[in-house]
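Support case: adenosine-5'-triphosphate complex. Customer-provided input:
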Amino acid sequence: MEKNIQNNDLMNKIISLCKRRGFIFPGSDIYGGLANSWDYGPLGIELKNNIKREWWRRFVHNRPDVLGVDTALIMNPKVWEAVGHVQHFTDPLVECRSCHLRFRWDHVKGDKCPSCGGELTAPRQFNMLFKTFIGPVEDQSALAYLRPETAQGMFVNFKNILETSRKRLPFGIAQVGKAFRNEITPGNFIFRTREFEQMEIEYFIEEKDWETYFNHWLEEMKRWLKDLGVAGDKVHYHEIPEGDRAHYSKRTVDIEYNFPFGESELYGLAYRGNFDLKNHMEKSGQDLEYTDPETGEKFLPHVIEPTWGVDRTVLVAMLEAYQEEQAPTAEEGETDLRVMMRFPKWLAPVKVAILPLSKKENLSDKAREIYADLIKDLVCEYDETQSIGKRYRRQDEIGTPYCVTVDFESLEDNAVTVRDRDTMKQERTKIGELKRYLKDKLG
Ligand code: ATP
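Agent response - structure generated as follows:
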């Protein structure tokens, strides 16, 4: 069960590293922040984009049966009425009668206020849709909602995509984008925020095949976690029992991760039956049925929905990568602790750092030349400030797999030293072969 505590050691180390090195900053920082909002900095956006890009490559580009979309954040409010969000997209809220703090009832252990121990009110249902108004008049007719999930963008485009792509079942529609929920108790850094990103697929199938494709997507989600570098024993596949599942779902699995603040949902996989298409067909009056090209039979496809939270993926990637070890050598004024983000190479925000040993002589010129060539193909950083030891530390802390050091010998032998983040081994490589060498290593 997720607990709302910020003073956890590892979480604090990650939050502090994120700010110190430019991964993630508190939102609206110069105005004292905005509770539980976060901004991705230069390294954070690289990390996040690597996740989204790999997801898209793997599940859209590499699959003939999945197509991508990017749909509007503000949809016709009828969409949210049709699938029940206006009435039922709620969490149970309780308020403390003494300190008036509010909590999500299912996150409170016991029946007293987690903050002051005071008495709590009876739970009431709180709707999490973010409201807004379209146009200049703020009345009921202009009321709209920011989407709380990307999924409905795919369902309302089912017909458009079917007609334009002429796909046959089974096929999926994928989307990566923002979602908004007015969460009662956001917290635990980027784990629970009111604005976040999702990567979702609606996979349309014939009803009889639902178990086959449910298992297929479960395996795909497991493979994804493995490639993210997540240790198997930290992940738990929680089968949602019948009474807790949505009425239309025959099977739902929450993929939970052992976060420092407790075991909590990372991703979800649900069999949604034909609930969404059925409701949209009824409420929009449009024919959303699929015609089997062989038998001519008309029916509403069923759906398997795998969902990944982007920000929770970033958090897990950071937690899994974080490592501390005794540094073999410590420079003056430094601790002997070496902090390292052991990201899988494909995830690392910066792939290569180019470091001239000294600013003197022609080392900078030579190093800049190498940098200018490498950045055409790889995300690189050039750094000539501070001592070489401090610069290695910085690169270790941001998880850069390779550091290229340009030294005085380089001017003579046209070779550089490449240092490997994980083994700390250094190899001498000819400058002419450097790009090929690095690309091979980075895979
Ligand atoms: P929870 O039980 O944690 O509130 P949920 O079951 O409501 O999550 P879903 O509706 O299944 O979540 O959303 C799909 C995915 O979106 C989640 O698995 C998670 O990765 C992500 N997600 C949901 N809510 C948030 C949030 N407030 N902040 C960040 N990510 C979120």
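The chain has a mean pLDDT of 94.

Case will auto-close in a few days if no follow-up is received.
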